[in-house]
Structure formats: structure tokens, C-alpha cells
Amino acid sequence: MGLGGMLQTGLMEFGFDRSRIYPVNPKTSEVSGLTCYPTLLDTPDPVDYVVSLVPARVVPGLVEQCVEKDVRCVHFFTAGFSETGDPEMANVEREMIATLRAAGIRTVGPNCLGLYLPDAGLSFGADFPKTPGNMFLLSQSGWNAGGIIRSVAARGIRFSKAISYGNGADLKAHDFLDYAASDPSTSAVMAYIEGVGDGRAFFEALKRCAAEKPTILLKGGITDAGARAASSHTASLAGSIELFDALCAQVGALRAETMDDLHDLAVGVSTSAARVRERETVLIGGPGGFAVLSADDTAKAGLRLARLPDWARDELHEFVPVAGSSVDNPLDVMLRAPGHLERALRIVTRTAGTGVVLSTSPDAGGAGGHGGDQTAAAGEWAAMLRRVEDDSGVPVVAVRPPSGGGPDPFVEAAFEHGISVFPTVARAARTVSTLITWREQREGLPVGADAAQTTFGTRRTGSSVRHSP
Question: Is 97 inside any structural domain?
């Protein structure tokens, strides 16, 4: 199946009204059961949104038809313009954008996958979640956009909108950030940016967005090799990473250094991890070398592991064997029984100064069997972590390696209870530490919708999204 068929399938899979999808191809009269029209001008009126998959050489003719048809917006999947470095094609891009804008038509792209709006039934991926959420994604790369959506969706996040904007010849990063800042269905923003054309406009838009909502940016093209790749990918001028770092610090945005960071910080700002204020950490880990390496990872991330007080150690020894275990911090224990883990959590969250507990998660499936029992067991573990949080006021962050066997019911259940789950202790600690630093940097900055103080965890019931208390 060609990309045009994939995009059409995505629309139909998302329940978009089939009677309002108009395939255009002069070589056939029917596509997937839909009437196919020879030209855009032959389609029924009105047409709001045009997706262009035609070759770059015939785009000027399509632009003329869009103007005559009085469409509202054009998404150019079509590539081959300024990103090629060819001055002639760069000029074609400028001319087509000027023509469309003069007619009041706005453009997404060219050289991009376009829009994912679950509420509206628009998607460039048939396998994306159909349930809307409150995360806004902006990505200059379509490939990265698809990967981000699939990866963080597996960890519970759902999207209000996602936009792949490619060259950004008309609508640019700052336009979309401005939109996200005032979008009532968006609570947090994540973005992959390769380059910025209008630095001042981008600065002002990022400042407005970060003042209203947690805003996480991953910058591509931070090395000479990456900058050259960015230029050939989307005709972007990458700019220096030092300047980008200073920009994020000045406006109060979070900067992700890697794609994993981007995913992890999105989970962090969407759960109770966003509430962690103190670096004093209790780590409940596994035995032996795992606990040692986990302690190293926690310290390297900038968190502090304090020795537990005698009373806490005494209470832990009531149900933790002395031989082969340690009730110091990190706790070198294996706690599989829900009652034992909850008891341990309630003890360590009572210790003075504890800012967060990092807890390796038991095998929820092993506690409850398979299928529905496994899902129920996962829900019980997640609900227990939430109870401990609510009663103690200390955020709990779970650590659980990927199962490798499809969706993990515990990860989904934990997110629905506002609990973050990370695949390693190192990534959990790094995320928590970054969020604490972000809070510290935000002190004194103007805050619109209390962006630095709100808990952004969400619970989903059916297709609705509501903030956690």
C-alpha cells in the first residue's frame, strides 16, 4: 500500500466520515470503496483540508486548484523543495506559499506527515491511540513524530494534537507553540526541533507556552554532523546548543538531551513525579549488585540517598530477613507480596525529609496469573502506590524493565493512577532530578497557569481526560 492509501486508511480507521473523504487521482475512479475524482476541482464542495502527495514538479498546478477551490489548509507531504538545497526548488516553495497565503490558505509542511488529531478523526498513523489526551506534540520530523507517539502511548500518554511540520515554509514552530499555549485541551507540550528560522518569534512563543504549561524540547542537530543532516532533512539552520540551552533556561522550558529524555520527561510532567521538590531519595531495589549500581545511578543523577533512622530500620526488620538483605538506603530486598511492599513504603515515606521514593516494581502478573487476572493484579499494585502517595504526600516513582511481550498492564494502570514508571533506575533518577532543577530555575519567572506548581498527572475514564487531584 502506498502512503496515500496509508493516510486514507488512517482516516477511516479513526472513524472520519467516509462521505467527506475525496481521493483525487486521474488514473482510477475508485479507491478502497471511495469515489475517486480526476482533479481537486471535480470534488464536491466544500473542501477544507487538502493533503498533497503529488510530485514536486506538479505542485504549482495543485496550488492553482486549491486557490480556485477556496480550500482552507493544505498539508504538503510532498518533498523535494528547500530541503534539497536546490535554489530553484527553494524558489518554487517560496512562490507556492506566497500564492496560497495571498488567497488566505495556510500550509503545513512541505515534507511532513501532517496532523494527528484524535478528537477530529485525523491521523497519519492507523495504529495511533484513538482516545484523546492532554499532551501536545510538535515535531519537525514525521518519522520522529510517529516514533514518539507510539513509544509514549505504550507508557500511558494520550495526545490532544500532534503535528509534523517539516520545512515549516508557512506555519512554523512558533505558530504551533502559540496555539498550544492557549489550547484548552492541552496540559503539557513536547517538541522535537531541528532549526528555527525566526529566532525572536520562536523565543516569544516558547516563553508564552512555557509560562502556561510544562514544555519539553529536544534539539536535533547539536553536532556538526547533526547540523548538516538537519539542513538536508528540513532545510533547517540548526544553531548552537549553548544558545538553545540558554533559551530554555531563560523561559523556563525543559530541555531533553536525548529521545529517551523526551519520553521520560513527558511521563514525568504527566504524573506525580512533577511534584517532587526535594532531592532526598529512598530507593527500594533488588538484591546485591543491583542495589549497588542503582545507588550509583541515583547519586550520579544528583539525588541524595540518606541513611534511614534506627526506628525505620527496626520496623523494616520485623518483616525483612536479616540474612541476605539490607534495610539501609537503598533497601537491598525483594518484596513481592503487596502487603510487604506497601508496609515498606509506608515506613520510608514517614522518614523526615524524604522527597521521593524510587521503587522497583514487582511482577504484577506473577501475583495475579494471566489475562484478566494479570490486569486486575496490575491495577491493585498501582492503586496501592497511589494510596501511599495520597496518605503520605511523598511521590512514589516505579521502576520496571520492559516486559518485551506487548503492552504492560502495570504501566498503563500506574499512569491512570498518576504514577510514573521508568524502565531503569538511572532514567527514573535522571528524570526526577531534571524536574527538580526545572522547578528551581522557574523560581522568579512569571507563571501563567501555575505551570510550575500544578500536578499534571491524568486519569482516563473511557475517552475523557481529567486531572488527578
Answer: no
- Indicate if 283 and 346 belong to the same structural domain: yes
Sheet holding 49-52, edge to edge: 49-52, 73-76, 106-108
Instruction: For 218-269, write each residue's pLDDT tens digit.
Output: 998 665 554 555 444 444 444 567 888 888 999 999 999 999 999 999 999 9
Question: Do 172 and 221 reside in the same domain of the chain?
Answer: yes
Is 349 within 8 Å of 272 (Cβ atoms)?
no
Residue type, 427: R
**Could you tell me if residue 435 is inside a domain?**
yes
Which DSSP string corresponds to 167-220? Answer: T-SSS-HHHHHHHHHH-TT-SEEEEEES--S-HHHHHHHHHHHHHHS-EEEEE-
Could you tell me if 158 and 282 lie in one domain?
no
What are 195's three cell numbers? 532549526
In-domain check, residue 77: no
The gap from C-alpha 98 to its chain's centroid, in whole angstroms, comes to 33
**Residue-range definition of the domain harbouring residue 317:** 274-461
Number of domains observed in the structure of the chain: 2
Give the residue from 349, 347, 345, 352 showing the smallest Cα distance to 383. 345
> E strand or H helix at 411, and its extent?
helix 409-416
The rounded distance, in Å, linking the Cα atoms of 68 and 85 is 30
What is the model's pLDDT at position 222? 62
Of the residues 269, 302, 323, which one is the last residue of a structural domain? 269
- β-partners of residue 188 are 135
Q: Where are the alpha helices (DSSP H) in 194-330?
A: 199-212, 224-234, 241-251, 259-269, 289-300, 310-317
